[in-house]
Design brief:
By secondary structure, the chain is of the alpha/beta class. It has five helices and nine strands, in the order αβααβαβββββββα. The two termini are 29 Å apart. Strand 4 and strand 5 form a beta hairpin. The protein is globular and about 40 Å long.
């Protein structure tokens, strides 16, 4: 989460670490970072965040483990099914360039999930070898890779723009 927080601060946002469901009430958006999805899932259950995340009606950005947590088989927030560690284990981690907004975007893949199935309302924003790795469904954006580990802030900028759009609509 530190890396996401650093990027968001650089872009003018004020990130807050969430540990309790009531903390979501005051947030404009939520980032669910990468890490170990099983451990993050246990912590979400332990702290009672499952229903709070499901009912959170503002933008959500999930990377890697965050993408897994939001899929159909976990919190069910996103019409997406993913396979854990589908690009290989830690030793198979890699970096590559992706097409994003008609430009190159550097992707860092660490024990990355792979999309198995996506519903009709899920928009593909970037692909790797024809497979979706950055997706959006409404107010939710997910990445199989770690954009927070590069100097390129465009994915976070897109998320913050989505936050601003939703805030304008709610105002």
């Amino acid at each position: 989460m530190r890396e996401h927080a650093a990027v968001l601060r650089r872009l003018g946002a004020e990130p807050v670490e969430v540990r309790k469901p009531e903390q979501l009430d005051d947030l404009d958006g939520l980032v669910i970072p990468g890490g170990e999805s099983t451990a993050i899932g246990r912590l979400v259950r332990l702290y009672g965040l499952e229903d709070a995340i499901r009912s959170f009606d503002r933008p959500v950005f999930g990377t890697c483990a965050g993408m897994i947590l939001l899929d159909r088989n976990h919190l069910g927030v996103l019409d997406l099914e993913v396979a854990r560690n589908a690009y290989g284990w830690q030793v198979a981690s890699f970096e590559t360039d992706l097409d994003f907004d008609a430009e190159r975007l550097h992707g860092v893949f660490i024990r990355a999930p792979r999309v198995v199935d996506a519903g009709p309302d899920v928009e593909v924003l970037a692909e790797l070898d024809g497979e979706p790795v950055l997706l959006r469904q409404g107010r939710i954006v997910v990445a199989a890779f770690h954009p927070e580990l590069t100097d390129d802030t465009r994915v976070h900028e897109e998320f913050l723009e989505l936050v601003r759009e939703v805030m304008d609509v709610r105002a």
